[in-house]
Amino acid sequence: MFKQYLNNTKILSLAFLRDKETVFYVLVLPLLFMLIFGSLYSDGEGRHQDRVLLYFEDTATISQSEIEEVIESNQGLSYQHINSIEEGEQLLRDYEAETLLRVNGDGLEFSYNPARIQDNPAIEQQSMAIARELDIRKYNLETYLQTEIIDTGDFAGSSQFLSLFPGLIALGLASSGLFVIVELFIYHKEKGVLKRMAASPLSRNSFTFALISSRMPASLLSTALILVSSRYIFNVSFNINWFLFIPYIIIGTVIMMGLGALITLFATTADSGFQAASILLTVMIFFSGIYFPIEFLPSYFQQVSRFLPLTYLARGLQQIMGVSQLDPTSLAMETGGLLILSIALILVVSKKSSWVAD
Amino acid sequence: MLAIKNIFLKHLRKQLRDRYSIFWNLVFPLVLLTILALIFGGQTGEDISFDISIARPESVRDTSEENQSYAMIIDDVIRSIEESEDSRWFQFHHQDPEQSAEEFIAQEEEFLESGDRHLILKIPEGSLPEPDQIEIYRQPGSQLSNIAADVINSIVTEINREINIAEGNVSREQLIATTSRQIDVSLSNGEEDSFSMAEYLVPGIILFTFLSSGVEVLVGRISSMRARGILRRYFATPLKPIQYFAGILAFIIVLSIVQVLLIHGWSIFFFDINLDLFNFDFIFYMVFALIVSVSMGFMVLSLVKSKESVGVVTQALTYPMAFLSGIFFEVTGMTGILGLIVAINPMTYLVNGMRDILGVYPSPTSDLLNLIVPAIWMIGSIAISLVKFSWNPGGDS
Question: Bigger pLDDT: B301 or A189?
């Protein structure tokens, strides 16, 4: 029985990894998105230094050297002198610079490109910091009330950039697990594979467990690829709780299989099952906070995210990888609840399904 | 002509019968437009409010009449925010009278961890003129918490400026007056207009549907029929390949027209924007963009023979081309290999050209490049297709 299971797992794992589309969706696509969104969200390599365009009017009372010194003291900024406001605005429109600083009399005017919606808040902060620093240097102003920002939790600090990687691992698990039950109970039935299996001495449970197990190497491989690539491409390392992480990868894959089982209950053909799973995966990508923070979505879309397992999977991985505060109770409750529900759904589908094509 | 019509109708019927194709080709672009406009356009602003706990000190040091405490100053600031229009952005949480400061802080720290609070501000005990420190506790995993911390930082900066003025260190007139403005990026009739993210996205989403029609729908259908040997059987009949090509091309054109109309209607209905999509220049450029996409689709079909590989290659081509072109968001800051992809990507130039023609955003690349780069891809793809394309690559069926 166990030998049957092992042999089947091996054969199905190899078949799974030989499938080019599967390899693309499980292994390549998360890496591709990591490169694209990682470069977008990272502040370091892969993005230009923020450039300030400087334009001094004849009436300017603040000297060029004062402003240049302040900008040079900020490592994230560089500057370029321009000859006219029109030239500066054109450079802003062409995305060649982040802000245009016009020095007029003893005032400063910062101009931004409204199309840079993601970057503008940070650019505005930097602009205000330039003005503040000029005041402090010029008049020796006191900083009476200082601020100290304290990050809660014992992790290094998070951002959309860091949250991306656990989200991409969750996406790899979703791609790996979501389609398997549809494949097992509808596609293989349509193709007559199950009928032939039923005629063989192979145990039904052994085949089912083997197929489920066959997805685990892909999930682990996808996870390893994300971790290694994030380390070497973006120089990111995580404070991973390995004792929880490895089991969570397996549990996460089973949870996504459970969602696939739910689809199987309603799908009539393999094609409709796969299509429904694809649509659900796309919806989950947008509403589970992998690429965009859930908090930025309208409240009605935030409600949608509460019903998506990928939201909890991504959140759980963030906690286990040290990106957000580990909350053992909610992690256990959410993961446990989803796991029980998933196993129940897989069992229901397994019992309900016939191995003979309709 | 009848043969072309029959091929066209066959593909149209298949499209209409398949609810999933309807979703991906007609509904999904609208969903994408809506989500991206809501997220990047900041149109969810009404839903955003910062929950901030104010932890006052148990006691205040040195509260003589002339030395105002920081706790009093911050109370005044909070009161003025609550009485202003900005109050909708903030929800301040204060300690209950029967609660000790320690109990309040412990309770609020739990709320901060659970996400029910975005910040805790621990107000210092000190008084002017001695410097002191305000502690801002944030939840770094929450984007709103990070933004709230930046906002509070800015408010504290303003407080310091006011204190410096009140202490006589500097006069208000002496301080550097700082203003900010957004540059005008609208090209419509030369009039200044405010920037709309939804308007910015509409040409991108149209281009995305063209890319999808050319590189996914067309390629998917031909490769599927090629793999199943249907095309080989077709061409054993009097049907000529050119007739089949015309029929499927007509289907792609009709599909694209429907997509454009749907996107246009949705942008009017949902976002109240009415771009002039039907001016001659834009129609010409849309046709050009569609031809580029279709020719790239044929290039894929020419270079990749098996149906399975075609699916992978189209996906591997579509995602980087869409995401690394500025269709959805601006990507000009990319360097290295990704920067190179942006620079050689025909979609980068097509979307710039489309936005420029519609007056949504002036093209950062020249008009010449917006024609030449996609044209090079188009000519290259057609040349490869002419040499390598086969309706029936042997042995694949």
Answer: B301
Report how far residue B48's alpha carbon sits from residue B309's, in angstroms, rounded to the nearest whole number. Answer: 45
* Percent of chain A predicted with pLDDT > 90: 12
| Interface test mutation site (partner B, options A47, A94, A106, A145, max chain B beta carbons within 10 A) | A145
* Interface list for A 253-272 with B (CB within 8 A): 271-272
Identify the helix (H) or strand (E) that includes residue A99.
strand A99-104
Distance to chain B for A152, nearest Cα, Å: 6
Amino acid at B322: A
Q: Give the other-Cβ count within 10 Å of A2's Cβ.
A: 7
Those residues with Cβ within 8 angstroms of residue B226's Cβ, 6 or more apart along the chain or in another chain: B232, B301, B307, B391, B392, B393, B396, B397
Chain A residue numbers touching B330 (CB-CB < 8 A): 95, 115-116, 118
Quick check: B183 and A89 CB within 8 A? yes
Side chain identity at residue A121, one-letter code? P
DSSP alpha helices (H): ranges in chain A?
Answer: 2-18, 20-23, 29-41, 64-72, 85-93, 120-139, 160-177, 180-182, 188-190, 193-199, 204-214, 216-234, 242-266, 270-287, 299-305, 309-320, 328-352
Query: In whole angstroms, what is the distance from residue B300 CA to residue B290 CA?
Result: 15
- Whole-model pTM: value is 0.82
Residues of A numbered 194-223 whose beta carbons fall under 8 angstroms of chain B's beta carbons: which are they?
A: none
pLDDT, tens digit (0-9, with 9 covering 90-100), for B51-97: 888 887 776 555 555 667 778 888 888 888 877 777 777 888 888 87
- Cα–Cα distance measured from residue B177 to residue A132, given in angstroms and rounded to the nearest whole number: 10
What CATH number matches the domain at A48-138, 3.30.390, 3.40.190, 1.10.150, 3.90.1200? 3.40.190
What is the Cα–Cα distance from A287 to A314, expressed in whole angstroms? Answer: 11
Chain B residues lying within 8 Å of A108, measured CB to CB: 176-179
A92: nearest CB among B180, B183, B316? B183
Any idea which fold B50-186 has?
A: Rossmann fold (3.40.50)
**B310: part of which helix (H) or strand (E)?**
helix B307-323
Crossing angle (nearest 10°) for helices A64-72 and A120-139: 120
A-chain CB neighbours of B320 within 8 Å are 32, 36
Dist. CA A224–CA B220, nearest whole Å: 32
Amino acid at B268: I
CA B217, B315, A181 angle in degrees (round to 5)?
95
Cα A209 to Cα A6, A15, A180: the distances in Å are 10, 16, 11
Task: Give the CA angle between residues A268, B223, B231 to the nearest 5°.
Answer: 100
Distance CA B121, CA B51 (A): 11
